[in-house]
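Schema walkthrough. Field components (list of strings):
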Amino acid sequence: MDAAQALADLTEISSQIEGAVLAEADGKVLASTFSQGVRGEDVARAAAELVRAAEGTRVQDAVGLAQIQAATPSGSVFVVRDDARFIAAITAPEPTVGLVFYDLKTCLRLAADGAAEHTADRARAKKAENGSSTARKSTKRDSDA
Amino acid sequence: MSSKTATVAFVTGATVATALWRRRRQRRRKHVDLYFADGSMISLADGTPEAGRLLTLARDVLTAARP
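Field assembly_structure (string):
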């Protein structure tokens, strides 16, 4: 499943999530549910900044930060991340925290599986392409001889 | 104690209790929870410098998402 499909499924399943963006660790957007008026890049950049700041709160311990919930009276911001990417979502005030985290983790896992599949497909295609070009070269050499 | 005095004391007490409850509830609504890979969690309550910075950044995310 690709990133956009994973996000579409997420917002369909979870009624509490108003919008979400899936991005690489550096903030590059992979998919977003926000309309064009709201730029997914801005949300991803702000969320990446939040993650960086949150990482600095536990300097004495090397264990990685996995999830964030920042609750404000106007709504909550959730971030779930793995080694390569993160997903940031916003909800109305006082959401069901466990459910939102569960849905976000599922979405991130599906997106990661999709990315791994895509990489494997590309590697297979490249290998097949190299194989066919080698075969073409050897055929050409045979005909020249 | 007259019934009037008792009523005034009750109303005053209820008002103060409501105000304190609202204040506490408002404070609890603003917090940041950080979950780490080892399963540990830190909850930063509003009023601490770390929570203040993170809540500001969270508001930036909300503002970007809801222009």
